[in-house]
Amino acid sequence: MTGNVWRNPLHVWGVEGAEKDVPSIPYKNHQDVWDETTVSKAAMLPVGRLRYYWKWGGHGALTWPRVRYWPTRRRGLSIRSAYNPKTMRLEKTIADKRPIWWVLGLIAFMLAPLVMPAAYQNTLLTAGATFAIYAAINLCWMLIIGTAGIYSLASYAVVGVAAFGTSYLSIHLGLPWWALPLIGAGIGLVAGLIIAIPAIRLDGFYYALLTIGLNELCRVYALQSKQFGSSTGGLYGADTYIPQSWDQYDQSLLAYYACFLVMLGGLALYRVIDGRRLGRILKMAPEKREAFAEATGVDFRRARVWVFVISSIALGFIGGFYSAHFRGVSFSIFGFDTVLLGLAMLVIGGIGRAEGAVVGTAIVIFLDKVMISTGPLRLMVIGLIMLGVVLFLKGGLFGIKAQFRAWRDKKKSERRSMRSEKGGEMLPEEATETRDKDLIYWRRYDKMQRDFLKTLISPELIEEHRKKPLGQHSEPLERVLLYFRRAPQVDKYAIIAVEPFKAFRIVALSGQRGVAPRIVEDKIYASQEEAYHGVFLRRVQDLLES
Asked: How many helical (H) and strand (E) elements, i.e. helices and strands, does the chain have?
């Protein structure tokens, strides 16, 4: 074949009517089609991405001193060593930057009173103290829901019982303020043991209903009890750590930093429980794998009860501090709206994360306490934020990063599967599950071959096959026919003689032994050549539509 002239090989043997040179159908060189198909038309960008943090060189096998801070097994900074593929140099980078953000956030909270506007100092200091108390409560609650996996809604009930009990003792027995948190811890221990007993048998939705019923029971009892201030709306007059002789600013500043210390204690408790043996046991035995955990010797039920009891002791301690901070307690601590606001704090930040509990509390307290001038509108905003997080985010605000990466990887896979420059007919998800990787390359080659054969289909080629379905053909037609002949037997077109030498019909083979072929159409062809051409037209149509 030279140019558009085809040399007939039968001419060498002296066959009658076999011309030496026969004009061929114009076609594009298959090598050009192959090159255009295999070349990538995607924009080539510089390899790598910008780094906004410093990477320093490694020092041999010793990457970093593995110093762990007591009493957890965590390191101050998780340093990872890896070779840079571009520079071939050993580099060290910080794998987990959360400790840095924690330190910066806590320092900012400590220095915030120095930069507060003078006109809003009292409001912001009061809101900051309230935020710190509720953050400590939510950190303990996060241990119960996130670490232990117990859906308890009685955390504020434990705080309220401890606050009412210590306020009553301080008012009637004259207990000093420093004894209130300690007594509150004891009350929290008793309340935690009582509430933890049903957790052994109940779980999930039923336990949540039970605990919210206990919360409402405590509210109704305190509301109707004369000893707990049913006529005054609560118990007030407990001893406080805030000197009454100080001015308003000094009192607010002392309360601010005292509540900050309580929040640090709650954060330390969360790190100890979640990062030590109890937390690791519960992470080894997640929900729906309890039988496996028991078989491996992990007593997860006892671990869950221990976490619940320890958290209840901490909640009781916070309840005693609550009464010493506010000089008493009101019935609103048992209110259903308080429980809902607490749930909003956890959901917005993200369940199972200490930073989620703190940041979610900050958002809700800012809207509820600082934006109080907006009236009921602020509650609507909190509800809308919570609804948006539930609908569009899987892990709260701190799950956005992982969710965005998953969405980005999904879009990358979709773009790779839609790109026709590289060829292939297998999605990335299907390719990863295919054991025989040769199948991937075969499909890619088949895609390239079909792209080339589509350029050969023309009215002249179809007319050439109509005139002579069998025998020697031009090179473009031979290429197309060879591809059709190599097709698998499943649904491969064939002809069947309805009446020998008079009537033919097109069928599709089943590809299975013993299964008869199926009729493709009702058209009857008068000759075998017409039936062959009908099969050819069907195969061409399938090729062009593929």
From this structure: 19, 10
